[in-house]
């Protein structure tokens, strides 16, 4: 096997790999750590890469497995967040969508559980095919499609909840309006 050009690999894939790591981890520090560990494994385990033409899939698969390993280890010291979810959400109208920005969508994306968020990130942010996602996550293509469908619904629900919360915070109670006008 020809020797890999590591600088070229980093140049070609670093941005996408980091974005994927950020979407998994939810913060820049952990994303950097995941990306660095992936490159370390490439350098130290080059022989594991059987087909150099599939370097992108190998990098994403390795990063995902590193993430899962870290997540598994963190179960010994869990970080617990308490959140409440509204059961009845208003419809997400086109007007509300037009008012939203990318940051809001990324925050809502991080609220979706990891095994649904990952295929969504790989498909929409990394532009990977169903087949590539299935290979990276080591799941059937049908499962990829199912998780994408469920994750889109979950993302819509989170965005609608945020929009409803924002609309509620912008409203002034009737009794307060009356007292201000006097």
**Spatial extent as radius of gyration:** 21 Å
Strand content: under 5%
Query: What is the count of distinct domains?
Result: 2
Question: What average pLDDT do the residues reach?
Answer: 79
In short:
Helices cover about 70% and strands about 0% of the residues. With about 180 residues, it is mainly α.
Please name the defining characteristics of this protein.
single chain, 182 residues, mainly alpha, Rna Polymerase Sigma Factor, Chain: A, Arc Repressor Mutant, subunit A, 71% helix, disordered C terminus
Description:
The protein has nine helices and no strands. By secondary structure, it is an all-alpha fold. The chain has two domains: 1-80, Rna Polymerase Sigma Factor, Chain: A (Orthogonal Bundle); 82-182, Arc Repressor Mutant, subunit A. The protein is elongated. Mean pLDDT is 79; it is low at 80-89 and 172-182.
Task: Summarize the SSE layout with pairings.
Blueprint: H1 6-25, H2 28-44, H3 55-74, H4 94-99, H5 102-110, H6 114-125, H7 130-137, H8 141-170, H9 174-181
